[in-house]
Every structure is written in C-alpha cells, then in structure tokens.
Design goal:
4 copies of one chain form a homotetramer.
Chain A lengths: L1 H7 L3 H5 L9 E2 H6 L2 H8 L7 H8 L7 H13 L3 H9 L7 H4 L5 H9 L7 H18 L12 H12 L3 H23 E2 L8 E4 L2 E3 L4 E2 L4 E7 L5 E8 L11 E4 L4 E8 H7 L12 E8 L5 E3 L2 E4 L2 E5 L3
Helix pairs in contact in A: 4-5, 5-6, 6-12
C-alpha cells in the first residue's frame, strides 16, 4: 500500500481525498508503521490548524484500535502547555461566521457546518449568530466551538445560549471536549480499523400491518425535523420494502443531530391500495410519530404497527 | 303547564327562548296536546321561513318520540307540491352570504354558520364563497344548502365543490336532505323527549400510564382541527382528571364536524412532574394523535396508553 | 321503621337475615338512634362471639359513616383489657378446622370459609391444615385468623406458612388486624350508608376489535384462578355485549381474592363468526391474559385490543 | 473433489454420512457432473426404497438449483407407470408401525418419525395408531404417508382422521404430494446449492422493555407445544441476550410442526432483577403468548413489548 503511494506519486493527503471525491480509508496498520511525516500529513487536519497534535501522537504509536488512536491524539493535545491548548481552541472557525462564508476555514469545517444548515442562514439568523459569536468571544476570548454534526439548529442555538452563561474554566473544558468529538468524527472518516469509534447513529423504522399479520410494503414515509414549534424541514423520504423496512436508514452513517423529529406514514394510501374500505376522511390517513433524539450516536428504531383504526410505536432496537 | 303559560303571559315562542338565553326544552307530550297555533309558534322556525311545514305536521299528531316528530315534519314537507318544496329550499340563506353578514337570516342560521367559522372569513375566503354561491345559484336556481354543523371548513368546501358538479335532480334531493338534517338538530334543541334523534357526536380521550398501571392525571391535552394540510385551529383544551379522562368530552352535545383532528398530549411534562428522569429532549414530549372524523353523529374515543418510550392508541368506545 | 319492627314482631337480627335469604341492609341512621339492645343484637356478630365489642361501641354513637362505625367498633375492641382482646382472638374458629366441618362456628364464618373453598378440601389438604393449625395454636395459643375473603387458596397457604414464622407480639397485632378486616366486610353487608368501607374490588374486561375499530361483541370469556402452577379452577364465564364488555364484572361486590388469574378470550371463534378467513389453526384462537391480584379492594380492569394477528392489554381503569 | 473421493476410497454414500455423524453436504455442481452410479448412490434414498427415481432423474441433469433438482426427481416419479408409482407409496413405512419399532425402515424415516415423538408413544397411543394404520391400509391398499416433520402430534392425528374419510383417487395424489415433501426435506439436508427449497421455518421472539425503551436482556423464555387442550410438552428454553433476542431461534433449521404453541416469558423475574418494585403477586409475572402455526415453512416472529402493567404482541417479521 505504502509502495503504491510512491508509484502513484500522490501525496499521503491526496490518497485520502482523491480527485473523484470518494474518500479512501487508510488502514490503521499503515498509520502505525509509516514515517512520522506521512502520519502527520494524513492526520494533521483532524485537529483544526494544529498538526502538532498528530506529531506529538505519532510517538505514541502503535495503536490497537481507532479508538486507541483517538485517545492518543486527545492525550497528546491535553498534555500540551496551556497556551498551546488555548491556541488550538482559538484556531477554530466561528459557527456561521464570516470566515465560513468567505471559505477561509478548513474543508472539513465547511462540510460539517453545511450539515447543520449553517451555510443557508437567513440574514436575520446570520445576524443573530454574529451577535452571539461576538458576545462569546468577548466573554471567553475564543470562538464558540461545537461539534455541529451532533446538533439540529434548535439544539445548536440552545447550547450556544446555555454556554454563554457558563464560567470560563468550565467553558474551556467544554470547548476542548467538543474539539475531541470533532476529531473523533473526522478520524472515523479517515481510518479503517476494527472497533469503531461510535461516532454515528441511526434513525430507522418498520411498518407492520397487524390486520394481515405481515410487513406493510409500499408505505411512503417521510422524516422531517422540527426546526421550531411549528416549522419543519424535510430530512428523508422513502417507501417501505417487502419487509416493511426502508432499504437504508432514514438517517445513518453520521451522528443523528440532537432535535425533535417526526416520521409521517402514508397509512391511508397503503390501506386503500390493498383494497380496504375506509371512511372519508379515513380515521387514520397520515400518521405522525413525533420523537426526540438526545443521543446522536445511538440507534433510534421507531416502528409502526397499525390497522386502519389503531397503532402503536415504541423505541425498538 | 299550558295553563302556566297563560299565567306567565309569555308567548309559546318566548317560553323556548327566554330573555336570559338559556333554552328551555318543551316536553313532547305538551306538543302533542297544545293548540295548532302554539305548535306552529314553537316549531315554525325548524324549517327556515316555512311555518307551513309545522302547520301541516300538526295534523299528524300525536308523536311517540322526537324522532317520530321529525319524521312527521319531513313527511309533511315532502308531501307538499313541488313549487312549495322548491320555495322551501329557495328560502334558505346563502352560506357566508351577504344576508348572513347583514343579519337578514333566521337566528338559528346565524348561530349555525358561526359554528363553522363562516362569520370570520377573510376577504378572499368571503369572495370565494360569493363566487361559488353565484355559480351554484345560476346552475340550480336555489342557494347552496348544507347542514354546516356537520362540517369543518375543509369538508364544507369539498362538499360545495362536489355538489357544483351534480345534476339538478340529484341536487334537489341532496338539498332537501340537508334541510331535514338541519331540522333534526333544531328539533333536538327544542324538544324534550325519550329516544334522541342522534344529532350529536363526541370526541373523548383517556390517558393511561402503563409504567405505573394507572390513569395519568394532570396531563394537558389540546384538540385542534386541521383546516388545511398545515394550518390548524384550536378547538378545545383540558387537563386529565384522576381517572385519566377529561371532565367533559373535547367535543360533545353537537355533531362533530367532518374533518381531520389532532389531540396533542403533554406527555413529557407529565412524566417530569411524576419524577421520571427523561433525556433532553425527551423521546416523547408532546404526542400528537391525528385522526379523521367521517360520521358527525358518532363517538370518537381516542385513548393514549403510554410510557416515556412507547404509546398506543385505537378508536375505542 | 323501628315501629315497623314491633309490628312485624321480628327480632332485630331477623330483620337483617330474613327467611327468604336476601339480606336487608339497615340504615346507619337507625343504628344511631335505636336502643343499645337492638344495636348489639344487630352488630353483635360482627366480632365473632364477642357482642361486648358492639356494646362498648354503642356508647360512641352517633357515627357519620359506616367507616366511622367500623373505626368505632375497632377502637372499642382495641381499648379492651389484654385478656379480653386475647379472648376475642381465641374465640375465632380454626380455618378448615373440625369446628368448621361440624358446623359449630358462626354463620358468617361458614360462608366466608366456603368462599375460599375451605369447605371442599381433599383429605390430604385437610390434614395439612390440621397440622398447620396445631402448630400455630401451640406456638401462639390462639387459632390462625385470616380474612379468607381476601385470599385465594395459594395466597392463604403462603400467608399461613409465613405467619407461622412470625414472633408472638407481631402475630397478635396481625391477627387483630385480620379480625378488623373481617368485621369491615361483615359491616359492609349489614349497614346501609353513604361512604363505603372499600371492602370490595372488581375484575372487569373489555374487548376491542381493532380491525374494525369497534367493540367486539359476542366474545366468550372465561376467568379462571390458578390454584397451583398448573391447576386452575373456573371462576366466571360471560359473553361480551354490544359495548365489548360483560354485563357484570367477572368478580365484583366482594374482595378479589389475592392470587393469579387468567382471562381466556375465544378470539378465534369471534373472528370466524364475523367472517374473517383464518388459517387452520388460527394464529390467535383462545387468548389467555394472565395477571396477579395483590390488592383485593382494587379494580382490575384487564382489556383486550386485538386483531387476528396481534393484541395488547394493560391494567386499565 | 470427485478425485478426492477416489483417494479417500470412501463410497459416495459414505461421503454424505461420515462415521462421525456430521452430514457433509454435496455441491450441486458435483451432482450434475458425477457418473449416474454415484448420483443414484447419493440420492437413491431420497425416495424411500425407490432408487429408480434418482436413476430416471439422472438423465435430466444438469440442474441449476436444488429446487430444480427436486422438481426433476418429482417429475421422474410422476412420469413412471401407475404400478410403479403405487409401489413407491407402498414402500413407505407405517407411521409408528411395527416396522418402525423393529428398525426395519430407512434411517431417514426413523429420524423423521422421532421428531414427532412417534417413537415415544404410550401403549394405548400405539394401539390407536395400529388401528388407524390398519383401517387406512384396508381402505386404500397403501400405508398412511405423511411428512411428519411438518406436524405436531395433534395435527398429525387430525390429518390422519380426515384422510381416512377421503376418496381413493384424491388420497393417492395426497400421499404422493407428501412423498414429494419428504423428498424435499431430505434433499435440503443432502445438497449444497444456492436457492433453498424453503423446507424450513422458524419461531423467534424479541423482548422489549418499554419502561426503559431498550431491549430486555436476561429474560428467561420457554417454548412449549400444546399437545392437547391442557397438556403441553417443552420444546425449547432460552434467555434473551443484550438485544432482547435469543441467540438462536426457538425452532429453526426444520419445518415448524403445525400446532399450537405457547412462549412463556419470566417477565416478573426480569423486572425484579432490574430493581423495579412489584406488588406480591406481581400484576405480570410469567406472561404466556399462545399462538398457532399453520405454515411450517414460514417464520413466526412473536415479540413481547412490556411494562410491569401492560404488554403487546403481534406476528412480526
């Protein structure tokens, strides 16, 4: 593998973000054996603008698992002198800040902020962020750092407001913890190894037709996120397969942003299609299951067992 | 009783709609025995601007039940010559029409149209009704007649549009059937007798705490009606009592307007109050049960049996 | 009323247990005003062979409620000197003892012991009771006293074995508490007054057809009690009415004996009768709901909401 | 592979049933290419005492799937002259017959009859079978043939009694169909190939703790089969794992015998173990889910979602 790099003449970094965009994961075994320079080239960006963290961690090799590698990087960062640790925090971009808009931040941050929709703020929302960013920076002397991939817009604002009330010492620790979370997600995308870092969660569903005692196939389902009490944004759409499930999770392969969601099942359409006679309007037509996600790295299985006149749900597994 | 009237010196009509507004019901037995004049005075308004219906029905007395009385009135109307029957229909006010706005229609109609919110139309909604009324009148030569108490605004518009496509003969029968329904509701309010007319329905609920195996007391519930896909209007608010029920039905004592409703249960608040530890946000916080009502005279019991992680509902009894 | 007694010439006792067997309840107001002699004649048997309790309580009249009357009687018993209280306990018959078999105990006790089936013991069961009675009497110097109406045979034996291990002082209090419970039930049968004593519980059910969204009528249900792990005895049979309920509770008007019960629903027969096609054998045919009763004075509502392929139950209200 | 056989010097038959008892499956590709003699040696026993069926089918090779192979064998049998087809049926052993007891039947039949417990009949049950076998043979001139692996004892007796009432022609077809089913199961055990024959079903379960919103681990479950209305025989025992499931299906890898089953969940023990306070006796202790199996080749997933006061089940997937 390493030799291959030489042949292709690509840099270590290029190997991981090839032109065609598909990230190629690098085996942990290679990371354990490659020269420090390549190690830093590959993992330097895991901590924003702070390749020194990877350099310090290189000495701690080999690592058995990617979790061990993450722990090693965090330990290296935590072991640094205070001014350096502070500089690490200071090096992060502001959420929805000018830097973000002007593309002056690391590629990873751009992608991550986009996930939370921070690249699509209205003028007033943008202004609000600017104000909070300014207030935060003047109070703590660093930008507000949050692992945005783990938040919906509502929970993000809530966290921002709460942390503005925090005391400096607590806030330093909180900010560093968020930096470590960001690092874990980036590492999970970069490194191939057994023993995952548990940086991704899942929302899945399953529709059962309890009149016929079999999975309900062909049920249109939509997942929306409640941005505010009334406003919702669509997240995913799917149709149940022969097993009553969706072919892929409604959210998967990434943290499930903390927030309130609603899965809407087109149950009435399903019952009409299989020939059941329903009143007009039907007792059950579009069935909404509303639930909150508090743990982005967990699996939220939200099944629906239904007849035209009854249904039940629960957090399954 | 009749003598009493003389003593009070009130007219028969006054007896039923006393100044202080509380309707006093008149016993069927009295209606069976009183002079035709009083009978007509009391029931003349049951058919809009058509006391002749009551007069014709007076001869058919006595009636065993209020249902029998209603049948007698309808039979009298149906037995009339076509031009008179047509005049009966023509005598009705337009829905949300100028007459309604200018208070030139019977008191009952004013109250009934208010129920459907037709007295609170926006200018554009009002214009739309005006247009449909005009189209209907030019096509069928009578105003559009509907027992509005049995409809939500959405189902009312749907019915209006469908009936505009109908053929004249069918439409005459449909309009007359609606007149009879209106009469039944007015009669139910006026007459006291065994054997109701089944002119009222009900929406009720019941909350069970299946963690503790007992009714959930103190749960705030709200009933809203879906006016459109997204817009809802509040209908009723209540808090569950010690038996997990609301002291009075969320809708009762009148037809349940055809439409789509949602009962929203403040389940998270309940669980927090009884001391359960919940994640933030909780998996279940405000639980919406959405259901359609197709039969205004039926009972829709929509219970919720829940834990912080599961719930079920069904159309109960 | 009191005069009436003189006229009929019946004794006070006769008034309450007339020949034709239907117990006539005596109003609390009468008990409050009648001569002490009649009061004692009527309530003397509430405490087994101890009319002195009623006599002592007579002085404490009047009582507002039957609960107050019960408290007054218990207070009178508790205020008596130790030897008298001990004699009160000693005066009780042994459970399933020779006295019971030979009819030498109070009528109430005979009826009460019959409820628990203690009048139908096998020779070996009878021998077991004799042995436990002997062991208990030799250890505590009084017969084993238990409010049998509150126990199934299994829980009765369990209580017997546990109390054999108790210490004398605790056991005296326990025995007296049981005497008070027995008194409450007897009083509830004798006296007519507002504010019941809560001496009765209930087992009820409700069957919902969640395929059709309406109550399931005509479902045969059977209540059995689990005497042992495998052996059961039938307690009640019924068929659901139009509302999906049984016309009377499966158990009611008396304490629900502590124990394990099973309601068996002939669901398959119901589904076949309403014309649903079922496999042979059906997925759900006779559905057993097994549950335990720990509080004889409470209401156990155990509903079934079912389709041919699913069902749910919960302790309702 | 084939060469390997030569080297080991084992016969084709030995390859499939090695001394150490573990059946080694033979790839379909080998069956397609091997000499007719080996093909017959390997598959001759699929049709009881009728290697001629395999010989006739050999000419029809190659087969794409094991299902195709089965179809080929059945076609070969069906294409044979009537007397030969009749001889094929006549060659089968009687159910629970003397031949079975005296070990004079094919090894496969012995194993298959053991599954249904026909090798453990009481004297009276044995006598009953003898009588039915005699009646059947005298009526149809062949032994009663049934794919016993697909039946519980109750359904087996039911089928026996019904078929005794059948007419000869229908019964010949029914018997042959059973022979084909037996062949399918034997073939599934012998041949390794893609595209299974669907000769096996499954009973599985899943326990959800809806108080905590997670799988219930460590719940003891027992599967019993109802032999008669009251008598049951244990089939399997297991304890749920961290995912609330059993590590292996309660029944799997074979047809699920037609019959009535009960899964019993030690729910009370589970709730006590996780520290919930329960009354004595608990409302829910051992929860029985009773269900019927009509399709031996299907998957019966019977989950339990429960709290100490409620539960629900359905046929899942």
């Amino acid at each position: 593998m390493f030799g291959a790099v030489r042949r292709t003449g690509r840099t270590a970094r290029e190997r991981v973000r090839p032109k065609h965009g598909v990230a190629m994961k690098i085996p942990l075994t290679d990371l354990n054996t490659m020269p420090e320079g390549d190690f830093v080239a590959l993992l330097g960006a895991v901590f924003e603008h702070a390749p020194w963290v990877a350099r310090a961690a290189a000495a701690r090799r080999p690592f058995d698992t990617v979790a061990g590698l993450h722990a090693g990087l965090c330990a290296a960062a935590a072991a640094a002198p205070d001014d350096l640790r502070r500089a690490l925090l200071a090096g992060h971009p502001e959420l929805a800040g000018r830097a973000a808009r002007d593309g002056m931040i690391a590629a990873d941050s751009i992608a991550e902020q986009a996930v939370a929709g921070l690249d699509r703020l209205s003028a007033s929302e943008y202004a609000r962020f600017e104000a909070m960013n300014a207030a935060y920076r003047s109070r703590f002397g660093i930008p507000f750092i949050l692992c945005v991939g783990r938040h919906g817009r509502a929970s993000l604002l809530k966290a921002f407001e709460e942390r503005l009330e925090s005391d400096p010492e607590t806030e330093m620790r909180t900010a560093e913890a968020e930096v470590f979370r960001i690092a874990a997600i980036r590492l999970g995308r970069l490194v191939e190894a057994d023993g995952t870092l548990r940086t991704t969660g899942r929302i899945s569903t399953h529709v059962l037709d309890t009149v016929l005692g079999r999975p309900a196939a062909g049920v249109a389902v939509e997942l929306v996120e409640a941005v505010t009490g009334t406003e919702t944004v669509p997240v995913a759409r799917a149709v149940t397969n022969a097993d009553g499930r969706t072919d892929v999770p409604l959210i998967g392969g990434r943290p499930v942003p903390i927030g309130v969601y609603e899965i809407r099942f087109a149950l009435g359409d399903y019952h009409r299609r299989i020939g059941m006679r329903l009143p007009q309007p039907p007792f059950l037509d579009v069935v909404p299951l509303r639930f909150g996600v508090a743990a982005p790295e967990e699996h939220y299985h939200v099944p629906l067992a239904a007849t035209p006149w009854s249904y039940q749900t629960y957090r399954g597994s």
